[in-house]
Specification:
- The complex is a heterodimer of chains A (454) and B (461).
- Chain A has helices spanning 2-12, 15-30, 32-86, 102-106, 155-160, 165-181, 184-191, 194-199, 204-234, 241-266, 271-300, 306-334, 336-344, 348-387, 393-405, 409-435, 442-446, and strands at 112-115, 135-139, 142-143.
- Chain A is mainly α and 454 residues long.
- Chain A has a three-stranded antiparallel beta sheet.
- Chain A starts with a helix and ends in an 8-residue tail after the last helix.
- Chain B is mainly α and 461 residues long.
- Chain B is elongated, with a radius of gyration of 29 Å.
- Chain B has one domain.
- Chain B has helices spanning 2-15, 17-60, 67-73, 128-144, 149-154, 156-162, 167-198, 206-234, 238-267, 273-285, 296-309, 321-358, 363-374, 379-401, 410-415, 426-456; strands spanning 65-66, 75-78, 96-101, 110-112, 407-408.
- In chain B, 43% of the residues are buried.
- At the A-B interface, helix 3, helix 5, helix 6, helix 11 and helix 12 of A face helix 2, strand 4, helix 4, helix 9 and helix 10 of B.
Chain lengths: 454, 461
């Protein structure tokens, strides 16, 4: 930003213009309204950053809690296993507590937690972080990415939405710009100085443009400074490229609103009419277009009915139960050696899991096909809404901030997807041990599948 | 005289192009949003009814099994959609639609609509309540911000006063004028809302509830009318008056609600899901487990039974030990879950109190809470649903645990009790939110007092 400012200053600024900039600066600094607005902006940005920070901290605490839980479980069992191998302890009678049993360690109380690590700039936008869970327990039985690990928050507070930086920039910043620029021309007329201005040998449009451009750079620099300061105060690391992207998108969004203010000033109406017009466009872009796009998207691609989903899921599970025999039979036909093994087992636990492992994969496929019907419905709606987001810069800006903060829906959905993929890897690991009647060793405990890039 | 002024005011306002444009836009938004929510309401209601019947069918035809396996199989309770969600959908989008009822654990309502929607669903929801509560005040501000300032600026005020009109009558006339214009605009919309409710399967009290929403809305609009007049009387220029009023709207409708949400999270911390569940697990482990007859607690329970009936072995007991053990476990589990949920709900209630407190700065928060409460789409009515579902679960599971000890089938399941939901009654609602209604009235009175003060303080010259 600083660079742009200087190049601007060097190339087209004559002495007279430097004088003008000085004068403008004086005007702005002396205006009590401006200092009040700047003060409020500072308070808002600081408070919003602080809110973001406490949200991220809560998430980090949660992640630590689940990781601790997982570690305690496996460390205890590893120690038990050591004692068993050394012969100081006996193998526990209960299967679930047996550290040598791969199924016991990969299922039931065992399992690993996959987590969403907050992005470096996660503080800037709550996004969808209050409705999608940031961790999921994975074991042989499945994942709970979509259920049971709900983010607890007061629904009233979720519905109201938080006071985050995205709110300050998307909603409040335009209002500030409006307050900054609604009466540049009209105030001159209302004070009677417009005639004086017109009598001078200057083009009124260029004059207005210069004023607007000056205010624009003033505000963008100010916001960048305040934001950087606030993030530094709450201890967020902003020395990365994404921070520059954030600053430039703020600059672009600000540009849009100043441009609009310029056009409306040109209409040459009274100050009150300017405010009403500007506020009208603010309502239009920030509230009305987004809600219309939402209505349109959810009418063209209605959200799936979860009420219907619940009962259909039961029906489809029953349907699968009927298929189970056929699947098993087919499997044994293809793998006759397994059939012999099966006939020779008397162990109830192994009998159950022999069957279960064969069915698990098929069941996952079957259920995924069913679920994807519903998922696709919401996906279509989201894609459609994204296409229409170009109608309002507010939507684009909000989406950009969510993406930078990695709190957008897509991020959470791909997390859910990756848990599903990981779940297969996890199951495969324990199944191969189980199939070959291998007992788990202390060494195995260090080699359990782990979440990547974390 | 007052009426004359009012008439003139209405005429002038109706002639104003700006007013016409804005009111037509708002009318379109209102009618459009009513049709949309009517459509959604019909669809959701139908889905809900089918699901409830289907879930029961699935329960009855679950096949031969022991009664306790059936309890594990479980069933669902679906949350009915209240008729007045037509007007205010409240928190419904953010709350689960159904609860899975099974043995041993109390589940919270799952599948929130919001997780299936596009991201914009969180920007703003174009519901009738949104237009009524958030946008209408803007129209009022536009109606009133220059009611006196233009007269001052053009000098007509002195003219009117010199002709013997009293200031009191002038102010009253203007207020009535704004009211008349507003009602002219709103009455058809209110009637439309009324028609929508009448043509849906409304329950006793729903029309009265709608009436209460309208009364609170009128009180709420009254506050904005008063404030507009006061500002217009005090301000030197229309410009200044507009800025002050718009700032108030922004603080009341935009800033305060969001600030409050975050403040309430700080003053009363919501536990994280994981720590909540860990606590439950810990407490469950402290009690008796119905599936584990070899545990210390179960043996103690057995001994107490043997002692009570004065026999030596389980086989000689006149009651079924395993059923009783199962029920004892169930009882412990129910208490643990109930305590945890009550604690969580108490945190939420405390947070709502923070919202209520901040309503002294923002009447919009008050109005929003009031309209949700009357529409039965607030947190309390959701809690009412989860509470009843839990009661039902308790009754169903205990009837299963004390059922026949062999296998049971459809004949038995058909006799199981059905879930019947009783929504919060109107008198309960009024009892719960009388304080909110009172605060809104206080706002109305205080703002009215300001009007009187502004007339007496000789600001109109």
């Amino acid at each position: 930003m600083v660079v742009i400012k200087w190049s601007f200053g060097n190339s087209i600024c004559s002495k007279k213009q430097i004088e003008m900039i000085k004068l403008e600066l004086k005007n702005i600094v002396r205006n009590p309204l401006v200092s009040i607005l700047v003060l409020f902006l500072f308070i808002f940005i600081l408070f919003a950053s602080y809110n973001g920070k406490s949200r991220v901290n809560k998430q980090l605490e949660g992640i630590e809690l689940v990781k601790n839980k997982e570690n305690t479980f496996y460390t205890n069992h590893k120690n038990n296993l050591k004692s068993i191998e050394e012969g100081t302890k006996k193998t526990p009678k209960r299967v679930f507590e047996d550290p040598t049993n791969p199924v016991a360690m990969g299922n039931y109380y065992g399992g690993t937690y996959l987590t969403v690590t907050p992005a470096p700039l996660s503080v800037i936008s709550n996004g969808q972080s209050d409705i999608f869970p940031y961790y999921s327990k994975v074991n042989i039985g499945g994942t709970n990415a979509e259920k049971n690990n709900d983010n607890f928050e007061n629904p009233m507070n979720i519905a109201t939405g938080g006071f985050d930086l995205a709110f300050v920039f998307v909603f409040i910043l335009p209002l500030l710009i409006i307050a900054f620029s609604y009466n540049i021309l009209s105030s001159e007329r209302e004070q009677g100085t417009l005639r004086l201005l017109l009598s001078m040998p200057i083009n009124i449009k260029t004059w207005l443009l210069k004023k607007i451009v000056f205010r624009y750079f003033f505000l963008v620099l100010l916001i960048s400074a305040i934001l950087t300061l606030s993030l530094a105060i709450i201890g967020v690391n902003f020395s990365n490229v994404t921070y520059l992207i954030l600053l430039s998108s703020i600059a672009l969004y600000t540009l849009f609103w100043f441009g609009l203010a310029f056009l409306i000033n040109l209409l040459n109406k009274s100050s009150s009419q300017n405010i009403i017009l500007l506020l009208g466009t603010w309502l239009l872009f920030v509230l009305i277009i987004p809600s219309f796009v939402n209505i349109l998207a959810s009418s063209v691609y209605p959200s799936p009915s979860r009420v219907e989903y619940i009962t259909s899921k039961r029906a489809i599970e029953k349907e699968f139960e009927k298929k189970e025999e056929a699947i098993l039979q087919k499997f044994y036909e293809e793998n006759p050696s397994e059939k012999d093994k099966e006939n020779n087992t008397t162990n109830r636990f192994r009998k159950y899991w022999n069957k279960n492992f064969i069915l698990l994969n098929e069941k996952n496929k079957f259920m995924d096909a069913f679920e994807s019907k519903y998922e696709n419905q919401s996906m279509n709606q989201r894609e459609f809404a994204n296409k229409l987001s170009w109608f309002s810069p507010a939507i684009i800006f909000q989406n950009t901030m969510n993406e930078i903060a990695e709190t957008d829906t897509q991020h959470y959905l791909s997390f859910q997807n990756s848990t599903k993929i990981f779940q297969k890897e996890w199951t495969e690991y324990f199944y191969s041990k189980y199939k070959n009647h291998q007992k788990l060793t202390v060494e195995d405990f260090n080699n359990f599948p782990k979440q990547k890039n974390n | 005289m007052t009426l004359l002024i009012a008439k003139k005011e209405v005429k002038e306002l109706l002639r104003n192009n700006r007013f016409r444009l804005i009111s037509i836009t708002l009318l379109i938004l209102l009618v459009f949003s009513m049709f949309i929510s009517w459509n959604t309401y019909k669809k959701v209601q139908k889905e809900h009814q089918t699901a409830q019947i289907l879930a029961r069918e699935q329960w009855e035809s679950q096949g031969q099994k022991s009664a306790h396996s059936a309890a594990h199989y479980g069933t669902f309770a679906f949350k009915p959609i209240p008729t007045l969600s037509l007007i205010d959908n409240g928190l419904n989008k953010y709350l689960g639609v159904s609860i899975f009822l099974e043995a041993h654990r109390q589940n919270s309502a799952s599948y929130k609509q919001i997780t299936d929607q596009n991201d914009l669903a969180r920007f703003a929801d174009l519901s009738p309540a949104f237009v009524f509560i958030f946008l209408m005040p803007l129209l009022i501000i536009l109606l009133g911000f220059n009611s006196f300032t233009t007269e001052k600026e053009s000098g007509t005020l002195q003219l009117i006063l010199s002709q013997g009109a009293s200031k009191r009558k002038l102010v009253l006339g203007k207020i009535i004028g704004i009211w008349l214009t507003l009602l002219l605009l709103l009455t058809p919309v209110f009637l439309l809302g009324f028609c929508f409710i009448v043509f849906s399967d409304y329950e006793k009290g729903d029309l009265l509830r709608y009436g209460f929403i309208l009364i609170s809305l009128l009180l709420y609009y009254g506050i904005f009318i008063h404030l507009s007049i006061v500002t217009s009387v005090w301000a030197k220029s229309s410009n200044f008056s507009l800025i002050i009023l718009l700032s108030f709207w922004m603080i009341s409708a935009l800033l305060m609600p969001k600030l409050t949400a975050d403040i309430s999270k700080k003053t009363h911390k919501t536990p994280s899901a994981i720590s909540y569940q860990e606590n439950i697990k810990k407490e469950l482990a402290d009690g008796i487990n119905g599936h584990d007859p070899s545990s210390e607690k179960a043996i103690a329970f057995k001994d107490s039974l043997l002692k009570k009936y004065n026999v030596k072995s389980i086989g000689k007991l006149p009651v079924n030990f395993y059923q009783l053990l199962m029920q004892a476990g169930e009882k412990h589990e129910t208490t643990v879950y109930k305590n945890a949920m009550t604690q969580l709900n108490n945190v939420y209630i405390e947070q709502l109190k923070v919202h209520q407190l901040n309503a002294f700065i923002s009447p919009t928060i008050l109005m929003r809470m009031l309209s949700m409460q009357f529409a039965n789409t607030d947190l309390q009515s959701h809690y009412n649903f989860t509470y009843q579902a839990e009661e039902y679960r308790g009754a169903l599971i205990s009837s299963l645990n004390s059922g026949p000890s062999g296998t049971v089938d459809t004949d038995f399941f058909k006799k199981n009790i059905k879930f019947k939901y009783n929504p919060i009654t109107l008198s309960q609602t009024i009892e719960k939110n009388a304080s909110n209604l009172m605060y809104l009235t206080i706002w109305w009175l205080l703002s009215g007092l300001l009007v009187i003060l502004s007339v007496q303080k000789n600001k109109l010259k």
